[in-house]
Amino acid sequence: MLTELQKKAAQAIVNIFETSRPLGDYSKVTLIQGDTGHLTYGRSQTTLASGNLYLLIKKYCESAGAEMAEALMPYLGRVEDRDVNLDRDMTFRRLLRDAGEDPVMQQVQDRFFDSVYWQPAIGAARSIGVSRALGVGVVYDSHIHGSWHRMRDRTNERFGQVADIGEERWIAHYIDVRHDWLAGHSNTLLHRTTYRMDAFREFVADDRWALPLPFTCRGVRVDEATLTEAGDPRAGSEADEMRLLRLKTPFLQGDDVRAVQQALADAGVDIRVDGIYGPATESAVSTWQRRKDLVVDGIVGPGTRASLGIGD
């Protein structure tokens, strides 16, 4: 039985593979040219083509307090039909990114990916006799990335089952089998994903079967603070106070918006101070950024705040 921290460590490895972040990126929208999965989204990058993107968005829209539900509902039919034109629908992609910042969406994604990927991976690992944290992580990665059953059977055929050769040897062989399959796949997009197996090879070589913390995966350090609430960058009022301000649907509101508007007004920019970050405020921010030779993107981050004399 894995501890909660071992579960988070195994998931962190796959999150790094998918989004470069140990806790995942709930807002990440990806489209890779030639990818048969088409548009992918969220912490574990579920796809339009699989139908799972529809299930995820549907669960979110049905959840109480979902900020972006009303805006996303009109898209549900097209997502259910796996309409590939959504790949390049910039409004839809923006709505997904905005929804990823909603704590409700983050909770929905955590439950959804646990149900769709983690729990089946735990069951699959248990059924063949894999119980160590690293081994479960390898099985989980294949459930996220695909073709677990085919690679499991190929490993069994070539090297024997876990019961015959032991868990550690079997997982090491499985990693090699999967690496070779990815490297030689007819879909050349998969060739570049051999890094996943290279990373697991490093864990095996270092004998990190229990996934003790801290460790580094693809240059990203993972420690206990990273995986607990105290280390979660989404937690805490400081993160909320220093949020990026930009045009979203629905419009951002609050004292931080009002402070930026007031600073712009004091600097001579024509703007209404109402605490609502609408199109007029975005335009005013862009005007200020242009005046100060900043990147003109209408987004208030640390640089724009500093230029307005608003303390970080």
From TrEMBL:
Residues 253-308 form the Peptidoglycan binding-like domain. SUPFAM superfamilies: Lysozyme-like, PGBD-like. It holds the Pfam family PG_binding_1. It comes from the Bacteria. Signal peptide: none annotated. This is Chitosanase. The lineage of its organism: Bacteria, Pseudomonadati, Pseudomonadota, Gammaproteobacteria, Pseudomonadales.
